[in-house]
Write a structure and sequence with these properties.
The complex is a heterodimer of chains A (about 325) and B (about 425). Chain A is mainly alpha-helical. Helices cover about 75% and strands about 0% of the residues of chain A. Chain A contains 13 helices and no strands. Chain B has a six-stranded mixed β-sheet. In chain B, strands 10-7-11 form a three-stranded antiparallel β-sheet. The chains are: A mainly alpha (about 325), B alpha+beta (about 425). At the A-B interface, helix 1, helix 2, helix 12 and helix 13 of A face helix 1, helix 3, helix 16 and helix 17 of B.
Chain lengths: ~325, ~425
């Protein structure tokens, strides 16, 4: 590959100066080309990232320091207002309530998703092929159903008048559930939304973790069996080390997705009742799209990014420190 | 991350669009007003909303306009309500906005309050038949004394009822006071109450346009102008009395409608179409929707105006409807004005009335008389009112409406009357008070 490999030197003679020079030049040029080529190949992707991600990011940051309502948008006037959007947002006690709620909500559904996915993945290893395929098809179906379609189904399940859940509970003897409203308080509404999001998120986590589990060779389990390890010990000693990096990764991804969840929350009760299920993503929508206050919305978007960076900082730190994505 | 960036990209796209196309307004308005009307040239783009005016009307209108102004072509486009505010915002921010637009009356102030968004039409009011403008609509199109929106059409709610059920229950005349209304509900329940699916009045918990009627009827209001701002008055005695009457209707009728949804979830017309509902508070064109389920309902249905607490009067009603406006950066303001002038002429206004809505620039309502539901609506419309002309009112309706939250909290017993109104008042002040 390198330019030096095939160069033969005439034996016992002082090599003339000129070819050496050219060789050296060639070598340098070759090295230079080698060094530049990867970057050239990266350029299209880099350009796409710059245009589609970095530039909008810079724009959002810039807009967050501007007053940009419909008037400014139409007239094209640029009104800089410094940190006003941030101080207004941060001095609103409601914002802190919503931030706290969003964090608790995210933590709860991420934990439920990972735990559910892990249990299902371990279960799938123990299932016979036929049952396993049935489980896998079911998971794929739950995963493949469009978000809004699933949301509509959940709305009907939990409907206070005609919902199948209340009817079933009534038949089972819990007569207090006739006409019970699952959306009467923020906590109850968020629980239903959480269940909905977990329902849609579990399949991806299950398949990722199952892929990790089937990567473990059968001999290791057999060895554990011969050593007389219990199911829990086998999991701790054999399965867990194999799937830990994947678990870290899907946790990270789940945090990102669930923190920004919007469609389900909005579709169920538009952040109600009485703002009780409003999360940061909903606030962003209300400010930006419903209220046309693009400057204030950009400030909230920036704050959300900062919060996300803080809670996922540990993962990013691991990612940059370890080689080849080894996160164990 | 991805979703967030999608949002960011969207926001940035809007900005890019503005940055590229700004600064092209305000130069071409002077051409029209010197002596003899200057001949109008160029195209005029008109955006009307779906369902606003029947195609027969707009076809004739566009034909007449093009015949009167040779060389002018009308680009007529029908828009959908869904997402219209964003679409209008983007269009107005662009370099070539439409020349005539229709804006929902509760959204007009949001556009009018920002200088340089809509053309000031104060001087042209008379040429648009200004003497006969429907007051409630005219108010919504006026901001700080200047006219930005020309009334287009309006509609208001009334009580739609089953004539056959009233007859069987022994109710001989339609209620003309709140007491008679409650009385009618009781009689209907006595007669049909053995059917568990029967509802004397279908009344969802968040029908807040009806609540407005009750609040106004009791002398209250949702907000009062306070200088340039608005001050919420949901905690006033009148507002509380309105809420109490709402609860009385819900409790007396024993309606099975959800307490945490409005009349569109589910569509109340569909519920009425099921044939087990004796009354609903709705708009005249909800009857054809109900008749799709059961065509016999058309003959069995009548209407009466929302009664007042004072016998013999009717309650004030919320006027829903649209205004017409001309974007400030329209390229053809002169043609747009001529177009609105023609549309606001009695000829086309009477066609609007015949199509079943209250015309915005004509007091001639005879077109509505042939329809029993329409004539009731027309009479009540003279007592029509609008929501506060606050620039922030759009935030109330397109976001989380505090009035709806107040209704649900009070009706479900989660909050007391005082607590519910105080909370909603604070929330409303936060939205429109600043």
């Amino acid at each position: 590959m390198t330019a030096t490999a095939n160069v033969t030197m005439p034996a016992g003679a002082t090599p003339p100066a000129s070819p050496r020079d050219t060789r050296a030049k060639k070598r340098r040029r070759g090295r230079f080309g080698d060094r530049v080529l990867p970057y050239l190949l990266l350029l299209p992707a880099l350009a796409a990232i710059l245009v589609l991600l970095a530039w909008p990011l810079v724009q959002v940051l810039a807009i967050s320091f501007r007053k940009l309502d419909i008037g400014q948008l139409v007239s094209g006037k640029t009104v800089w207002i410094g940190f006003d959007n941030y101080t207004n947002t941060l001095s609103d006690p409601e914002f802190w309530t919503v931030t706290f709620r969003t964090l608790v909500f995210t933590a709860a559904i991420v934990a439920a998703t990972i735990l559910g996915g892990l249990l299902l993945a371990v279960l799938m290893r123990h299932l016979g092929p036929v049952v396993r395929i049935i489980v896998q098809v079911t998971l794929v179906l739950a995963w493949a159903t469009p978000v809004i379609a699933t949301t509509t189904v959940f709305q009907w399940i939990f409907d206070e008048q005609y919902g199948i859940l209340n009817k079933t509970l009534d038949r089972l003897g819990f007569h207090g559930f006739i006409g019970f409203s699952w959306f009467s308080s923020g906590a109850s509404t968020l629980s239903v939304i959480g269940l909905l999001i977990v329902w849609q998120a579990v399949p991806f986590v299950t398949f990722s973790l199952y892929a990790g589990i089937i990567g473990v060779s059968r001999e290791q389990y057999e060895a554990a069996g011969i050593d007389g390890a219990s199911a829990w010990q086998t999991f701790r000693a054999v399965t867990w080390p194999a799937i830990k990096p994947i678990t870290t990764m899907v946790t990270f991804l789940s945090v990102l997705w669930d923190f920004n969840a919007f469609a389900q929350i909005w579709a169920i009760r538009e952040g109600g009742p009485d703002g009780g299920s409003t999360t940061l993503a909903v606030v962003l929508y209300l400010k930006g799209i419903a209220g046309n206050h693009f400057g204030a919305a950009a400030a909230i978007a920036t704050l959300m990014l900062i919060v996300l960076a803080l809670i996922t900082g540990r993962y990013i730190q691991l990612l940059t420190r370890t080689r080849e994505g080894d996160l164990s | 991350m991805k979703r967030w960036l999608k949002l960011a990209a969207g926001a940035a796209a809007v900005t890019l669009a503005t940055a590229g196309c700004a600064g092209s307004s305000g130069t071409d308005t002077a051409a029209s007003s010197s002596g003899a009307p200057a001949p109008i040239t160029g195209d005029v783009t008109v955006w009307l909303m779906t369902g606003s005016a029947p195609a027969t009307l707009t076809d004739a209108l566009n034909k007449e306009f093009e015949a009167a102004h040779p060389g002018v072509k009308v680009k007529y486009e029908i828009q959908q309500w869904d997402g219209i505010q964003q679409k209008l915002t983007t269009a107005l921010a662009g370099g070539t906005p439409p020349d005539v637009i229709e804006i929902g009356n509760t959204q007009t102030a949001a556009f009018a309050s920002n200088e340089g968004v809509l053309t000031d039409l104060t001087a042209d009011k008379d040429s648009f038949n200004g003497a006969q403008w429907l007051k409630g609509l005219a108010d919504s199109g006026t901001y700080e004394g200047k006219v930005y929106g020309v009334p287009f059409y309006a509609a208001n709610r009334e009580v739609i009822y089953r004539k056959d059920m009233f007859e069987q229950a022994g109710i001989t005349k339609t209620p003309t006071s709140n007491d008679e209304w409650i009385d009618a509900i009781t009689k209907l329940k006595t007669k049909f109450g053995s059917d568990p699916d029967f509802q004397a009045l279908y009344m969802p918990g968040q029908n807040w346009y009806s609540l407005l009627s009750f609040i106004w009827d009791n002398g209250g209001d949702i907000a009062q102008p306070d200088g340039k701002k608005f001050k919420a008055t949901l905690d006033s005695a009148g507002a509380k009395a309105g809420l109490e009457f709402y609860k009385k209707l819900v409790d007396t009728s024993g309606t099975k409608a959800p307490k945490d949804a409005d009349e569109a979830k589910p569509q109340q017309a569909t519920v009425y179409g099921g044939g087990k509902v004796a009354m609903m508070i709705g708009l005249p064109w909800e009857l054809p929707t109900a008749a799709k389920t059961d065509p016999s309902l058309t003959a069995k249905t009548g209407a009466f105006a929302i009664p007042s607490k004072t016998a013999g009067q009717t309650a004030p009603v919320f006027l829903g409807g649209s205004n017409l406006a001309i974007p400030a950066n329209s390229k053809n303001v002169a043609a747009a004005k001529e177009y609105i002038k023609l549309l606001s002429s009695p000829k086309y206004q009477s066609q609007l009335a015949a199509a079943g809505v209250v015309p915005g620039t004509s007091t001639d309502l005879t077109g509505l008389d042939k329809d029993p539901l329409g004539s009731v609506m027309a009479k009540a419309s003279t007592n029509g009112k609008a929501v506060p002309a606050s620039p922030q009112w759009g935030d109330v309706e397109s976001g989380q409406n505090p009035v709806k939250d107040m209704l649900t909290a009070y009706l479900t017993g989660k909050k007391t009357l005082d607590q519910a109104t105080a909370d909603a008042n604070a929330a409303l002040n936060k939205l429109i008070g600043g």
